Amino acid sequence: MGVPGRLHGAAPRAFDDHFLRAIDGGVTQAVILASGLDTRAYRLGWRDGTAVYEIDQPGVLDFKLRVLRGAGAAPRCALRPIAVDLRDGWAAALDGAGFDTSRPTAWLAEGLLPFLPPDAEEHLLREIHRLSAPGSHLAAEYFTDVRRALENPMMQQNAAIMGIQMTDLMSSAPRPGLAERLAELGWHTRLMTVLQEAAAHRRALSSTAMLDNIRHVFARLR
Ligand SMILES: C[S@@+](CC[C@H](N)C(=O)[O-])C[C@H]1O[C@@H](n2cnc3c(N)ncnc32)[C@H](O)[C@@H]1O
After folding, report:
1. Ligand 1 pocket residue status of 35, Cβ below 6 Å
2. Model's pTM, two decimal places?
3. Of residues 74 and 202, which shows the higher confidence score?
4. Any idea what the CATH number is for the domain that residue 210 is in?
5. How far apart are the CA of 172 and the centre of ligand 1, in A?
6. Ligand 1 centre and the CA of 196: distance in Å?
């Protein structure tokens, strides 16, 4: 298996575990930011009465719903897809869909932050914080250096195969460290690398420039 395959095994498992910890802790509300083709609403054992909000672009949400319905898949929660741009106005859309600020939330931003300019990332963090009741959980993935990620041969090769220009999609403008920003907002944070996560599951994964550039932050609001 190549590096992307191994990465896409270790990282999603770590984020599954993030939700499982929140479920164990009694959380019944989750928001998956930039959900893409995420199927956790269908895969994980959510508590009764759990609402899972998936936020992404309308075309992405429609495509996934169509494919999963066609395959006979049913969500294991109250699934609430929200088609909105995460650079603007998403909190109001969440509110309109029934989001409850009095309940702790499990948030996930997997594969999202490099696509947001730094000011949109900062706005996103502040909104997550504003909407989070004590006991909320947050997990997020980011590159320590987006510019280095864009120059990485593996990233360039994958982009060429898909026929997309990653520099048009990702923002390499410098930004504050995510864990530090969350700590400033009062979250208790834990930083992990993909290599550490793979080792925790006894999976062999050797260091590469791409993997070493990725961090996962797991945060809890007390
Ligand atoms: C790399 S995919 C990650 C999908 C999923 N979270 C995962 O890890 O498999 C990035 C996702 O971000 C979404 N996205 C990027 N910018 C966005 C924005 N401004 N508003 C809403 N969604 C956005 C894209 O549509 C895409 O589904």
Report:
1. yes
2. 0.95
3. 74
4. 3.40.50.150
5. 16
6. 25
The domain containing residue 40 runs over which residues? 3-145+174-221
Number of domains in the chain: 1
The region of weakest confidence among 59-63, 142-146, 186-190 is 142-146
- CA 166 to CA 158: how far, in whole Å? 10
Token code pair at residue 212: 């070493």
- SS3 state at 201: coil
Position 99 in a domain = yes
Map residue 54 onto helix, strand or coil. strand
Q: What is the identity of the amino acid at 17?
A: D
Q: How far is the CA of 112 from the centre of ligand 1 (A)?
A: 5
**Is residue 14 assigned to a domain?**
yes
Whether residue 150 is contained in a domain is answered as no
110 lines ligand 1 (CB under 6 A): yes
Question: Separation of 43 CA from ligand 1 center, angstroms?
Answer: 19
Q: What is the distance of C-alpha 151 from the center of its chain?
A: 23
Q: What are the structure tokens assigned to 106, written together? A: 């499990």
pLDDT at 1: 44
User: Does the beta carbon of 54 sit less than 6 angstroms from any atom of ligand 1?
Assistant: no
What six digits make up the tokens of 47?
């508590």
- Between CA 53 and CA 33 the distance in angstroms is 8
* Smallest CA separation from ligand 1 atom 16, residue: 115
Counting ligand 1 atoms within 8 A of each CB, the residue from 115, 164, 171 with the most, and so the one to mutate, is: 115
- Compute the average pLDDT of residues 127-132: 98
In this structure, is residue 30 part of a structural domain? yes
